[in-house]
């Protein structure tokens, strides 16, 4: 027995269809696929019956109507009269006369559906959870449940949307349908209206994915038998759901076909390897090309430009084109495409994605390197030329951005409908899944340590937190490190590297992981990528302001103008976020004063690992490793050895203290650009430089010290201040920044005026002269930190992700919790 198959939803023309706005963005107004090619391809795919469901026309169907197994159908655009909500309806096996009637009635769905029932036309609600013109509501969908018996699992939608539709339809009951009938004052269609049928169609607009989804009847027979089986719900659906990569490939293909008809691009494929590759991946055999007389004349490469703008456009085009050619030469798989005659549709989708990803990465790397070199050499105005390159890159990748955004929007909409249709909506909510972007995960600093600790505690508490970074390091549970496109080293700080992130790979990863919150811990390149991804995927964005970068830049460069410029960028960046988390109220106040909306700012507590940092680890570390006796009083500094930490002031402080107390040593834990200069400044003084310490060594160094001295005025938080107190070490900090908010003045240490060296010396001297008070502060410091456990702070922050976000509009209000 030979089963009967049909793709009930495929198009031959594109002048009016749901994705028309997408084509407008690409500059394409019209494209045409030969109906005969559709017929032949569908038959080769094993379809017993073939129909073309163009939008509001049967011209394509009529061209193949005389062929075996072909029948006339159309996709009807109809409307709910209350707000103009568009609904697409597949009307199958109709006559030309019926098409004329349908065209007359389709303006009102309440007129159209009774006619289809009267004429006994098999009709299907196409992609019923796709809001064609963004006017669909749950009430509209409820009425579709009353008016339709057949619903389509659409081949251009992803499995997520189709699964939700299946779930909703499978849960209908007689009582629920009766409630809907009363609510909308509408009699349901069919004797058992709670029993719905599913059909399938590819909804293919490009010609590449015909019959990727189709309707199957497990029996032999003619067209009437097939349609009767569908009407009696004796069919099943087959094939695959779609993916943003498929939609993007379709958009590229439509654009290529359109521009090919306008400019005859295929004439270049014989002489240019790039156009050969593009034609192999995007060209559709059987596509209609306009005559030579209809082609638009276009300037050939190398022609005279009319103005500077055209010169820049040509420069960017040539730059992108040459980069694309380089990528083709670098990857053998791409070269093999140009010499092969046939590739399956899924192979073309995959190859298109791979090529665009690698070409975009290469273009971005070259643009970024050029820009950074110009910036570092002071050629700021030359950078603006490269901004155009960024726009060209965005345009090149826009089909992928549109595709991922469209699929995300569809997911959010159908999730909203599902939540309103199901009284037990709490049961369908997904857990929080946080994608946390950072450019400092494997580095040696407090932020990186905190993030790693958050990952560990999230795993212990079974929270879905993934730290995403750009680094050649290996991944492990809770981390996702992408290989960087390229790296730029800051000339003055060779140990600081900027990694250029692979945007398309990161976007695809976040989509597949179904994150419902994006957290950004950096305003650098990785943070910019995260911001773009959050925008494309329409996700709420959270950010933490970790580092006082403008102050650092101003101090390091001694250029206040450059510091102000960085402030402008930082305010712009953080103002794009929905929530800005700050580790101290002083930091939040400063951001608000600089222009960040105060309603976005949230203070979140930070904790410390009280098991790792504890007085119990005082075990003679300095004696065994550096020969310092336990009775020698030790002043400790832990952190980056750099001038922005006010370490030149620490040098002056210790010189004054060591002049007064011969038995006091200064211990510097850390590395940085000021290390050699600091060693020279303290030559002959009792100072120990341990280098970088971590793990048990660091814990033992804290516990083996007597007083922690931290003169920095630019730290937004200061993890080291908490770690010292947890280790039973009192602290002396400035009254500026986060550290002052993470100690208790006169109980766990002292807070002194910033840049007041004498005040530091006085407070340190007081404690060195009063062992009893120093011991009491050690006890108080440990007691205070026992109330600041890392797990409690993490749980507080996690709950902040659940708080309602004021100001979020539309689809950003997710139904995931």
Write the layout of secondary structure elements.
Elements: E1 4-7, H1 20-26, H2 35-44, E2 49-52, H3 59-64, E3 70-80, E4 85-92, H4 96-105, H5 109-118, E5 122-125, H6 138-147, E6 150-154, H7 159-170, H8 174-184, E7 197-201, E8 213-217, H9 223-231, E9 235-239, H10 244-263, H11 273-282, H12 308-330, H13 332-338, H14 345-376, H15 383-421, E10 433-437, H16 446-460, E11 464-470, E12 479-482, E13 486-490, E14 493-500, H17 503-513, E15 517-520, H18 525-536, E16 541-544, H19 549-557, H20 560-575, E17 579-582, H21 585-594, E18 601-603, H22 621-626, E19 633-638, H23 647-660, E20 664-669, H24 675-681, E21 687-691, H25 695-703, E22 707-710, H26 719-726, E23 731-734, E24 749-752, H27 757-769, H28 771-785, H29 790-800
Parallel strand pairs: 1-2, 2-3, 6-7, 10-11, 10-15, 11-12, 15-16, 16-17, 17-18, 19-20, 19-22, 20-21, 22-23, 23-24
Antiparallel strand pairs: 1-8, 3-4, 4-5, 8-9, 13-14
End-to-end Cα distance, whole Å, is: 50 Å
Low-confidence segments, given as residue ranges, are: 14-30, 287-313, 383-388, 808-817
- Which structural class best describes the helix and strand composition? alpha/beta
Helix content: 40-55%
Q: How do the strands line up in the largest sheet? A: 5-4-3-2-1-8-9
Compute the number of helices: 29
Tell me the β content: 15-25%
Major sheet size, sense and barrel closure: 7 strands, mixed
- Tell how many strands the DSSP assignment holds: 24
Radius of gyration: 33 Å
The best one-word shape is elongated
Quote the average pLDDT: 83
């Amino acid at each position: 027995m030979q089963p009967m198959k049909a793709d009930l939803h495929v198009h031959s023309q594109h002048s009016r269809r749901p994705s028309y706005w997408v084509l407008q963005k690409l500059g394409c107004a019209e494209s045409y696929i030969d109906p005969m090619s559709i017929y032949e391809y569908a038959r080769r795919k094993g379809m017993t019956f073939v129909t073309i469901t163009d939008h509001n026309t049967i011209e394509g169907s009529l061209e193949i109507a005389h062929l075996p197994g072909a029948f006339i159908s159309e996709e009807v655009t109809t409307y709910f009269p209350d707000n103009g909500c568009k609904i697409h309806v597949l009307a199958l096996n109709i006559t030309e006369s019926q098409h004329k009637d349908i065209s007359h009635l389709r303006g009102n769905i309440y007129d159209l559906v009774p006619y289809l029932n009267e004429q006994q036309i098999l009709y299907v609600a196409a992609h019923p959870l796709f809001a064609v013109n963004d006017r669909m509501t749950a009430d509209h969908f409820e009425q579709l449940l009353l008016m339709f018996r057949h619903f389509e699992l659409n081949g251009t939608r992803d499995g997520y949307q189709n699964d939700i539709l299946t779930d909703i339809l499978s849960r209908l009951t007689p009582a629920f349908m009766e409630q809907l009938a009363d609510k909308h004052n509408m009699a349901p269609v069919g004797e058992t209206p709670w029993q719905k049928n599913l059909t399938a169609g590819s909804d293919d607009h490009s010609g590449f994915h015909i019959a990727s989804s189709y309707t199957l009847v497990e029996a032999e027979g003619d067209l009437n038998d097939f349609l009767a089986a569908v009407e009696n719900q004796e069919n099943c659906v087959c094939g695959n759901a779609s993916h943003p990569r498929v939609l993007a490939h379709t958009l590229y293909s439509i654009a290529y076909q359109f521009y090919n008809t306008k400019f005859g691009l295929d004439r270049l494929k014989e002489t240019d390897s790039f156009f050969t590759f593009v034609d192999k991946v995007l060209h559709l055999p059987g596509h209609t090309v306009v005559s030579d007389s209809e082609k638009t004349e276009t300037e050939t490469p190398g022609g005279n430009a009319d103005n500077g703008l055209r010169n820049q456009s040509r420069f960017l085009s040539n730059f992108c084109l040459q980069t694309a050619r380089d990528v083709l030469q670098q990857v053998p798989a791409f070269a093999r495409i140009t010499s092969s005659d046939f590739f399956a549709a899924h192979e073309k989708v995959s190859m298109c994605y791979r090529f665009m990803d690698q070409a975009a990465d290469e273009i971005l790397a070259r643009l970024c390197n050029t820009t950074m070199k110009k910036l570092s050499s002071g050629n700021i105005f030359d950078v603006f030329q490269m901004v155009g390159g960024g726009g060209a890159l965005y345009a090149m990748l826009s089909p992928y951005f549109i595709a991922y955004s469209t699929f995300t929007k569809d997911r959010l909409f159908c999730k909203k409908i599902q939540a309103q249709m199901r009284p037990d909506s709490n049961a369908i909510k997904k857990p929080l899944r946080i994608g946390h972007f950072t450019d400092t995960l494997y580095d040696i600093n407090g932020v990186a340590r905190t993030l790693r600790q958050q990952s560990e505690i999230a795993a212990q508490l079974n929270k879905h937190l993934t730290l995403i970074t750009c680094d050649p390091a290996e991944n492990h549970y809770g981390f996702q490190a992408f290989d960087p496109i390229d790296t730029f080293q800051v000339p003055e700080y060779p140990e600081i590297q900027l990694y250029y992130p692979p945007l398309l790979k990161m976007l695809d990863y976040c989509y597949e992981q179904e994150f419902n919150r994006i957290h950004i811990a950096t305003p650098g390149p990785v943070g910019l990528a995260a911001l773009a991804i959050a925008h494309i995927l329409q996700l709420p964005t959270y950010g933490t302001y970790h580092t006082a970068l403008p102050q650092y830049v101003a101090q390091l460069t001694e250029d206040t103008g450059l510091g102000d410029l960085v402030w402008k960028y930082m305010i712009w960046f953080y103002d794009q976020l929905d929530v800005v988390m700050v580790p101290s109220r002083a930091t939040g106040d400063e951001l608000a004063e600089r222009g960040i909306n105060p309603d976005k700012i949230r203070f979140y507590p930070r904790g410390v690992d009280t098991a790792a940092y504890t007085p119990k680890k005082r075990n003679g570390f300095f004696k065994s490793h550096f020969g310092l006796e336990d009775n020698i009083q030790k002043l400790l500094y832990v952190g980056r050895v750099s001038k922005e930490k006010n370490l030149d002031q620490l040098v002056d402080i210790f010189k004054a203290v060591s002049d007064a107390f011969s038995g006091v040593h200064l211990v510097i834990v850390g590395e940085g650009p000021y290390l050699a200069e600091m060693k020279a400044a303290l030559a002959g003084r009792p100072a120990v430089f341990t280098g970088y310490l971590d793990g048990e060594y660091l814990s033992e160094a804290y516990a083996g010290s007597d007083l922690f001295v931290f003169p920095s005025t630019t730290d937004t938080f200061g993890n080291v201040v908490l770690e010292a107190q947890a280790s039973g070490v009192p602290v002396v900090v400035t009254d500026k920044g986060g550290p002052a908010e993470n100690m208790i003045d006169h109980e766990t240490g002292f807070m002194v005026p910033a840049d007041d060296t004498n005040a530091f010396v006085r407070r340190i001297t007081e404690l060195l002269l009063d062992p009893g008070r120093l011991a009491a502060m050690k006890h108080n410091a440990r007691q205070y930190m026992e109330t600041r456990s890392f797990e409690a702070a993490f749980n507080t922050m996690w709950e902040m992700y659940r708080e309602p976000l004021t100001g979020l509009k539309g689809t950003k209000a997710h139904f995931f919790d």
